[in-house]
Amino acid sequence: MRKNWQRTKEYKELNASLSENLTARGLTEKVYADKQAEYLNMWVQLQELREDIAERGVTVWDEKRNMYVENRSVTLSINLSRQMLAIYTALGFKDIAARAQKQETDDDEL
């Protein structure tokens, strides 16, 4: 039985965190909500791909070729991660993370 990732604590916390951050920055238009929903859907898909990799491994037996081949979930998860990063960046989260990291570095110098 597949896990319903949308009902998990991790999903709810991620959704709330994204919503709070976007709202705090005044990004409440529908376009941002749609991108947030797209990001969350991709997050669910990524969790499912990770489950498949954990269950079957990075290689799987191909009956037709009579040999091990790469589990397609590996490639799909990499591509999905790239798409998620693009959405994350478009929503401005990458810039926020970079500024926060820079502030931490500045504080360390004191």
In words, what does this structure look like?
By secondary structure, the chain is mainly alpha-helical. It has one domain (5-105). The protein contains four helices and two strands. The chain has helices at residues 9-24, 30-56, 72-90, 93-109; strands at residues 59-62, 67-70. The protein has a two-stranded antiparallel ribbon with strand order 1-2. Helix 1 (9-24) packs antiparallel against helix 2 and helix 2 (30-56) runs antiparallel to helix 3. The radius of gyration is 18 Å and the shape is elongated. The mean pLDDT is 92.
What's the arrangement of secondary structure elements?
Elements: H1 9-24, H2 30-56, E1 59-62, E2 67-70, H3 72-90, H4 93-109
Short description:
The chain has 110 residues and is mainly alpha-helical.
What proportion strand?
5-15%
- The poorly predicted ranges are none
Quaternary organisation: single chain
Write the H/E string, N to C: HHEEHH
Distance between the termini: 53 Å
**What integer value in Å does the Rg equal?**
18 Å
Strand pairing plus helix content: what structural class?
mainly alpha
User: Portion of residues in helices?
Assistant: over 70%
* Overall pLDDT: 92
Instruction: Identify the strand order in the major beta sheet.
Output: 1-2
Number of domains: 1
Largest sheet: 2 strands, antiparallel
SS element count, helices: 4
Rough shape?
elongated
